[in-house]
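Fold it.
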Amino acid sequence: MASDSGLAAAGPAILSLVGRQARRLLPRLRVGDLDDRDPDAIRELLPGLWLAVSAWFRPDVRGLHHIPAEGAALIVGNHTGGIMSPEVMISQLAITSYFGVERPFYQLAHRMVLNSPLAPILRRFGTVEADPDNGHAVLSSGGLLQVFPGGDYENYRPSRQSGVVDFGGRKGFLRLALGHDVPIVPQVTIGGQETALFLARGDKLAQLLGLDRIMRIKVLPLVLSAPFGVTLPFAPFVPLPAKITIAYLPPIDLRARYGEDPDLDQVYDDVVAEMQDVLTALEAERKLPVIG
């Protein structure tokens, strides 16, 4: 049996190997380049994608009129459904249908998503890497930007916590909105945690393995999904056809509500509480898992 000292000595070598593989599989994408968004491709793809998404997820999208009709704004959503994240594609299609393909609308996503099989379509619809420079570039240009502060930590929360908004204390979205003096539009989604059985985040294991440093991820999730049962962490899967409901809330002008120098802790608590109230109400509407 290997001694403890032997395992300790092997640890750095194992982590180095994992790191090399991660960098090979997850190459860095262009930062600040928004040109992959293609209105012509969106116009061509939108009808077919909307039909497919509607047939599978039966989306119920409410409150699109709350999104400002023009100018820069920051849409802040709770994240669901693991790497498949159905609310990303549904909101892309719904917002683009509502405002037209010419309105510049972008979404920040983890580099892992932008190296997934869905990446070519997502890029054409405006998905860019979740890098601060990209967020600043979109809002500086007057675009509409969607962010999911909870990231992988919220995305892979256990299915039993489907009705919980959990940003993990991340407040960068507030600094981004204040820095560009744009309103926040909360987006609340339910149904994504029913597209598979999310059993555990594996956040302590991810921390032990140093995955945040290597791959910018904070979880190593355990997921049961179709068609193979246990899914490798972050591997694509066939989502169950769970009904997805999305609600957009009235925009929040942070300085108008909280003054010129808002207390970020107070604002964070208020925004999360407001979203949580809506998510709790949406959860109460659901009669059965997956069916909705």
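The chain has one domain: 11-285.
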